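Box 4.2: Ligand-aware structure prediction
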Amino acid sequence: MQQAEEEVAASSKDEADRADEADASAGGDALPSATPELGELVARARRAQQAWGATALPERIEALFSLKRRLLERAREIGDLLHEECGKPVEEAVLSEVLPNADLVDYWCNHVEELLEGSAVDLDPLSYPGKSGRISKEARGLVALITPWNFPIAIPLRTLVPALLAGNAVIFKPSEVTPRSGALVASLFAGLVPEGVLTLVEGGREAGAALVRAGVDLVSFTGSVATGRKVAVAGAEQLIPVSLELGGKDAAIVLADARLDRTANGIVWGAFTNAGQNCAAIERVYVVEAIEKELIPRIVAATKALRPGIDTARITTEAQRDIVLGHLRAALEGGAELLAGGEPDDPTSLDFPPTVVRLTDEDTPLMCDETFGPILPIVVVKDEAEAVSRANASRFGLTTSIWTRKIRRGRELARQLRSGVVTINNHAFTAALPAAPWTGIGETGYGVTNSPHCLSALTRVRFVLEDRNRGARELWWYPYTPALRTVAFSMAEVRGGARFFGRIAAFFRLLGALPKRLFGG
Ligand code: NAD
């Protein structure tokens, strides 16, 4: 597996934003469209894909089968690395990034043959005599996979495994914030797939921008809305598909009959796991007023019980910490009430206390933008209708949870939610289920990860028609004669273009014209 070392570009979002402003003021996108080295990697990956895509599917399954064992054997190493590089507690790292991916390998190795199987298309033998058709699913070709830093092992694997099994080659660019995790992911495949089938490209935004314009067949992107838009533009300009998994602003809706302890514990985990650096972190809680006095103190107590550094992760980057601080300060200045946590004593610290605030005014970045940090805002609402309407009033739409004893009521509310995933009495963990689609609405993007549905991006369909008709010509071929015209209009009338008697008359005209036409008239 070849590694292309590229400059790690702007190391913080601030720098990236400043560079973007500089690009804009220079009148265009100053990022390179492609580099010669990348061109060579793409050509090599294309050659490799042709051979890999042509191998029998059982051989590809066999090749990836040992990935599960490799992943599980390296669980401790992965846990330690994610602790160092991202700041996650090791058990959280293994539970979210190792074990679900073992399930992922099992799922795809066991089901991919059935999921990629072709299907016959029914053709009416009278209209289409001698013909049969089949749909097959072919590899998309060369996939560019660009991923973020918050789940740097799990997110790439969720696409790599089905993409490679489907016969694609992949050029994988992990986040510049977590290069060691990216390299570890690539190393898991070493020796399993032929040279060039999986290529690791390291680097930052410049490497990503070059990759999306390097002549690939699909860009599978997970990251921020701002970058996702640029990737979408690059895809549109080249007319290549782009799969986008972007930011979130998940809501939890708590109904009056919720199980209070379970709900409080679930919401606290959903908000603070990975220090809230989760696209599906709970960043808004809407609780109906009937139970505010029972629920809010439980949430506050469960938050205060979290042990720093044991239960809680560190914020991964300084840029992210600054965004979180900014959101908290603006909300407090706008009148939010601090119920737990608050700013760290040392504003330069990445250990940010899990923080709970209560507010009424949602016109603040903490309620409108993605915070991606350990802050849990609570809004008390009159009833569930208000909760649903507030939850839906976001430009994001990844996952929403509903907390209630009445599953049927939860299911009814789920239908009203503008959300790619809805969980009743749980939150967000479904990203770990390989058979369940992970997808969003609005600015969360339209990509689908996991489940058979992700194959619609990773493959393209091909239709093959076989014709065993030995006749010299088809009904609709040349020459165009008066008999053919009669056949065409009569058929339109018989099939619904005329009323009852008109259809009977057309049927007899058809009976007269059809043999004439079939025998050459
Ligand atoms: P980011 O957009 O800054 O970076 C993501 C990746 O894109 C990185 O590898 C980066 O180097 C690359 N990149 C940067 N500029 C690029 C360009 N112009 N062209 C191509 N690639 C470019 O995002 P981030 O800060 O790494 O990740 C956090 C974001 O990811 C959050 O918004 C989070 O919600 C989102 N996310 C979404 C999901 C999901 O499933 N919806 C999952 C995880 C994270």
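In the box above, the bound molecule is nicotinamide-adenine-dinucleotide. The CA atoms of residues 229 and 262 lie 38 Å apart.
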